[in-house]
Design a protein that fits this description.
The chain is of the alpha+beta class. Helix content is 41%, strand content 19%. The chain has two domains: 88 residues; 242 residues, Bira Bifunctional Protein, Domain 2 (BirA Bifunctional Protein, domain 2). Bound molecules: 3,4-dihydroxyphenylalanine (DAH). The site of 3,4-dihydroxyphenylalanine has 11 residues, from strand 9 and strand 10.
């Protein structure tokens, strides 16, 4: 190797040894092998070498190139290894450190109740169905056997949407009655029967809306609906199912449950369901008073027929209850309004540990 080549090798080796990071390493690589690098210049000048020396000079240059490339690559590998070692050392964790207390969020009581309801009916073999908050007049009322001017409509302080709203256009409702914010979860019964052949076992849990506001009513609230359709479903199934549910939900194995005849346009016969409690102390399952808790009944043949289901072949039951109401009763809450106020002190008091699983009680 001639002196100039040897000098380049020595100089490069020294620079590589001094390079302690990838940036310095890369600068050397470019200075030697880059387009304007020293070795590249020497190779370019090969043409100027007298022809008799060119062969030898060329071979020497090739050897030098190989040596330099090898040295540069080796330094890169060494620097990469060192960087990895340093990272591993800095990311080392000490599993013996005690955990630091951490503030976790809590599950809202409404969400908790919805999880519990779904768990209990899920264990009975129900699916969970849902539908939109904005409903057509037909699905919210008509198909449920509540025609226009039916007095039952007066019980639902309905929020009507403009007939020409985007929601109305979507529902194809521009010429018919204006769409509504659903006043109950019952339209999802209809949606389910229209899209799914029986047998059906499902519940619906979701938001509902009525123009009503006081200590026990909110314009937005939640309901849970149930629908069971099969060839031989009877009132006995309804009673067994709801009794089991109420006892599981309230965690009282012998909770008294009473079925009292009532009226809903979409069921025949219809029944209100009461549970036993002591009005004075507010204690459930004790005392001799009754508290109304939900509505239910055998699905009206006309509702089945509205959904294209032959009522001579299929029958079943349905029920509906207020999620806020059962939550308030279960946890002894007097006022509904704090549910929606997001007061962190209230949430800390009534919220649930998100890691605690939803328990299924005895009897389910
Ligand atoms: N939809 C009723 C309401 O909003 C509740 C209800 C009663 C639902 C009886 C039902 C039922 O499915 O069978 O008050």
């Amino acid at each position: 190797m001639t002196d100039d080549l040897q000098a380049l090798k020595t100089e490069t080796d020294a620079a590589l040894a001094a390079a302690t990071d990838l940036r310095a390493w890369d600068a050397i690589r470019v200075a030697v092998l880059g387009r304007n690098g020293k070795l590249t210049a020497l190779l370019r000048d090969l043409g100027k070498t007298p022809p008799e020396e060119r062969r030898e000079r060329g071979a020497a240059l090739n050897r030098l190139k190989e040596a330099l490339t090898g040295a540069i690559d080796a330094r890169k590998a060494a620097l990469d290894d060192a960087a990895l070692e340093a990272r591993l050392a800095s990311e080392r964790i000490d599993p013996t450190l005690p955990p630091r207390p951490r503030e976790t969020g809590l599950v809202h009581p409404i969400a908790r109740t919805m999880e519990e309801i779904a768990a209990i009916f899920g264990a009975m073999g129900c699916t969970v169905s849902d539908g939109p908050d904005v409903e057509s007049d037909w699905l919210n009322f008509g198909a449920l056997n509540i025609p226009a001017h039916h007095p039952a409509r007066a019980d639902h302080d309905t929020f009507y949407l403009p007939a020409r709203s985007p929601a109305a256009e979507r529902e194809g409702q521009t010429k018919l009655a204006p769409p509504v914010l659903r006043t109950h979860t019952s339209p999802v019964q209809i949606r389910t029967m229209l899209t799914q052949p029986p047998p059906i076992r499902t519940i619906v849990i979701g938001r509902t809306y009525r123009a009503d506001h006081d200590a026990t009513h909110s314009p937005m609230f939640h309901q849970c609906e149930g629908l069971v359709i099969d060839r031989d479903i009877t009132l006995g199934h309804l009673k067994g199912c709801l009794t089991d549910f109420l006892r599981a939900f309230f965690g009282i194995a012998d909770l008294p449950v009473r079925f009292r005849s009532s009226y809903f346009p979409f069921t025949e016969p219809s029944m209100e369901v009461d549970i036993g409690w002591d009005r004075k102390s507010g204690e459930l399952g004790r005392g001799s008073d009754w508290l109304e808790i939900l509505g239910s009944g055998m699905v009206h043949p006309r509702v089945l027929a509205n959904c294209g289901i032959d009522p001579r072949e299929w029958q079943g039951f349905a029920f509906g209850m207020g999620v806020e109401r059962v939550t308030m009763l279960k946890h002894g809450m007097a006022d509904l309004r704090p549910f929606y106020e997001s007061d962190i002190r209230w949430l800390r008091h009534y919220g649930f540990n998100p890691l605690a699983p939803t328990m299924l009680h005895e009897g389910v």
